[in-house]
Design goal:
By secondary structure, the chain is mainly alpha-helical. The longest helix has about 50 residues. It is about 75% helix and about 0% strand. About 20% of the residues are buried. The protein is built from 13 helices and two strands; from the N terminus they run E-H-H-H-H-H-H-H-E-H-H-H-H-H-H.
Length: about 350
């Protein structure tokens, strides 16, 4: 039974993994294998599989690429039991569907007008195309290849125990808050290269938390309750080192959360500045309103206060962005220290 209360961090990828491979793996997470498990082997079909493919691929290609209309009867016949016939059509893919519809119709049309030669060429082209498509389909998927080659350079929820997962979820929440902030999108935090610094922070934190998990699992396998006091004393420095490392990573996550909080404060200040920035356009309307309803001196005083409020909002925005940048620079300062 799945523990729904257990935090579920998203997979974390080492930034040194090429961006294209990271995108492939992120789009097909079912092929990823936890770092705690052995590296997945390269697919190597056995002799029975190879022989079956040698027999099956030509039959497949002949049926779909040569026999005009033969596939239609089986295909739609099996689809009649479905809720929607076109659900089965599109599961083959748009290009394959068009080939299935057009090639048999053209073949039959050529045969009806006595053009056996072009019909034969079209059948040969269809047979070749379906053969190539079937062979390509048998290759290892690109996402599977990336998951195998980069095994150990990505971490999955299974690589973390509950305490580690809770900390990683906190770190990822803070990173998402910064990257999703208006201050980041508008370039107010450009002094901190968030697109580079934050993924590196996420990976380093995740790697340390996965190591904490491995060490805690080793400790449980040692069954400390069965050890003598003398042996437990020998293991105490290891336990103390683990606690210190956990404290250091927790402190780094708290620094991330501070940065996220400062980014949210900068968002609020930016919103206020945006509101106040529109005041000059609105002042003309207020000036007309005041001129029509109150005395000139009182109107001048009120408009002066509006201008002062605009200056104050700009100052607040600069102060808030500066505070957020200081919090972000604290992350880069953390990177200069060895990972505990």
């Amino acid at each position: 039974m799945t523990d729904v209360s257990r935090p579920r961090p998203r997979p974390v990828f080492d930034p040194v993994v090429p961006a294209g491979d990271r995108a492939l793996m992120a789009a097909d997470p079912d092929r990823l294998v936890a770092a705690k498990l052995p590296r997945p082997p390269r697919p190597r079909p056995g002799l029975p599989t190879i022989l079956a493919r040698i027999a099956w691929i030509p039959v497949f290609a002949f049926f779909y690429g040569v026999l005009p209309g033969g596939w239609i009867r089986v295909f739609f016949g099996s689809a009649l039991d479905d809720d929607t016939v076109f659900d089965r059509v599109f599961q083959w893919g748009r290009t394959a569907m068009l080939a299935m519809l057009i090639v048999p119709a053209v073949q039959m049309s050529l045969l009806f007008v006595g053009q056996e030669g072009p019909a034969l060429l079209l059948a040969a082209a269809g047979f070749t195309g379906w053969t190539v498509g079937a062979v390509r389909h048998l290759r290892e998927p690109a996402s599977g290849r990336a998951a195998r080659e980069h095994h150990g350079r990505y971490l999955l929820p299974a690589d973390f125990d509950r305490p580690a997962a809770q900390l990683l979820v906190r770190a990822q929440g803070a990173i998402d808050a910064v990257l999703g902030s208006t201050a980041h999108r508008e370039g107010l935090l450009d002094d901190v290269n968030n697109a580079v610094v934050l993924p590196r922070q996420e990976w380093e934190i995740a790697w340390a938390l996965a190591e904490h998990t491995r060490l805690r699992r080793e400790r449980r396998r040692q069954q400390p309750e069965r050890l003598s006091p003398e042996v437990r004393a020998l293991l105490e420095p290891q336990h103390r080192a683990l606690r210190l490392s956990v404290d250091a990573i927790t402190e780094r996550i708290e620094t991330l959360e501070t940065y996220a909080r400062r980014a949210r404060e900068a968002d609020d200040a930016y919103h206020e500045w945006q509101v106040v920035k529109e005041l000059p356009e609105q002042n003309a309307r207020y000036r007309d309103l005041l001129a029509r309803t109150v005395g000139h001196d009182l109107a001048r005083d009120e408009l002066g206060r509006l201008a002062d409020d605009a200056l104050l909002a700009g100052t607040m925005l600069r102060d808030s962005v500066g505070t957020a940048l200081q919090a972000g620079r604290a992350l880069t300062a953390d990177e200069a220290r060895p990972l505990s």
